[in-house]
Amino acid sequence: MTTEFVIPGEPYGKGRPRFSNAGAYTRTYTPAKTANYENLVKLSFMEQCGVRFPEDAMLDVRIFAYYAIPKSVSKKKRQAMLERKIRPTKKPDYDNIGKIVCDSLNQVAYKDDSQIVDAMVRKFYDEAPRVVVKISQIGGEG
């Protein structure tokens, strides 16, 4: 079983948890931008796929992050970016992109992201910023 979906917009990485003090208590919370992006990932998956993998499935996740080409680059550099000769070396880091996507899909696409046994995140430039996610079940059916 394989499924693929697209998350529209600029790639976003998982933000660090935030802390606030209320008297003797410390509250931990997820930053609003991170929570909003996690909801976008869930919504994109449910609208485009909606299939849940079995609880004992071993999964392979491939994430392709496409960043917008900066308006200030020359035509020559722009062409090199479109030909994949120049790739993004900017934030968010590849691991934060993978983390926000995989964490968001817990209890939605699969029981837990511990089921992911193989993963890849690749970063490119493109005219249309987006994140493409491909999830495949490996090693047989359940």
Helix proportion range: 25-40%
How would you sum up the major sheet?
A: 4 strands, mixed
Number of domains: 1
Helix and strand succession? EEEHEHHEE
As a percent range, the share of strand residues is 25-35%
CATH architecture annotation? 2-Layer Sandwich
User: What is the approximate shape?
Assistant: globular
CATH topology: 60s Ribosomal Protein L30, Chain: A
* Strand arrangement in the largest pleated sheet: 1-6-4-5
Average residue pLDDT:
92
CATH class: Alpha Beta
> CATH H level: which superfamily?
Holliday junction resolvase RusA
Distance between the termini: 10 Å
Structure description:
The strands form two sheets. Strands 1-6-4-5 form a four-stranded mixed beta sheet. It has a two-stranded antiparallel sheet with strand order 2-3. The chain has one domain: 2-Layer Sandwich (60s Ribosomal Protein L30, Chain: A), CATH 3.30.1330. The chain has 142 residues and is an alpha+beta fold. The protein contains three helices and six strands; from the N terminus they run βββαβααββ.
Tell me briefly what this model is.
It is built from three helices and six strands; from the N terminus they run βββαβααββ.
Write the SSE topology:
Layout: E1 2-8, E2 18-22, E3 25-29, H1 32-48, E4 58-68, H2 75-82, H3 94-104, E5 116-126, E6 130-138
Helix pairs in contact: 1-3
